[in-house]
Amino acid sequence: MTWNGVADVTGAGRGTGESSATPRLVLCAIDEPLARAWETVPEKVSGTVSVHQGSVLDIPAQALVSPANSYGWMRGGIDALYAKAFPELEQRVRSAVLASHGGELPVGEALVVPTGEPEPAWLISAPTMREPGEQLPPDTVHPYLAAKAVFDLWSTGTVETEEGTHALRDVITTIAMPGLGTGVGGVAPDTCAHQVAAAWDEVFG
Predict the structure, then answer these.
(1) CA atoms within 13 A on the CB side of 148
(2) Among 16, 66, 88, 160, which one has the highest count of C-beta atoms within 10 angstroms of its own C-beta?
(3) CATH assignment of 24-204?
C-alpha cells in the first residue's frame, strides 16, 4: 500500500460507489465509569453506535481513533498502546503532521495514516490537547472538537492506496473510538460522552 502522507479533507476524489450515511461507531472503554457514560450515547443519536467494554484493539474495525496531542507524540495513555502495537505508527503520524500542518495539528482537526496492518488499516489522529500530558479544564470542549474532526474527516476525506484515490467513507465502515481526553486529560466520562453525541448529531444528525 502506498500512501500520500495525509488524507485530503476537501472531499475531492469521492468514490462513485454508494456509501453509508454514517460509519459504524464502536465506543470503547476499559473502565466502568466510561463504559457507563458511553451507554448513554446510542440512546441520543441516530445511526449505528454501540459500546464495547474492553480494549479498543479487540474491535474488528478499519480505523482506530487516537485522542492525540497536536505534535503527534504517542508516548502515553492509549497512544502508547497504539505505538506498541504498530511500531512505525508514531513516525507516520509525526511525518503527516509535519507535512500537512507544519508540525502542529490543531485541536479540531484530524488526519489519517496507515497502521501497516490489514486490520485496522488506518489510524485517525484527532488531538484532544496541544501538549502531551496536558490537563484539560472541566469546561473543555476538546472532546467535542476532536470527535467532530473525526466525523468530518470520515464524511469528506480521501486517501491514497495502490488502487488510487478513495473516499475515506468507502474504505472505513467501522471506527473504534476510546475515551477522548478521559485519561491523562482528566475529562469526566459523562462530559466526553455528551460531547461525542453532540458532535455526531452536528455532522450526521
Answers:
(1) 17
(2) 66
(3) 3.40.220.10
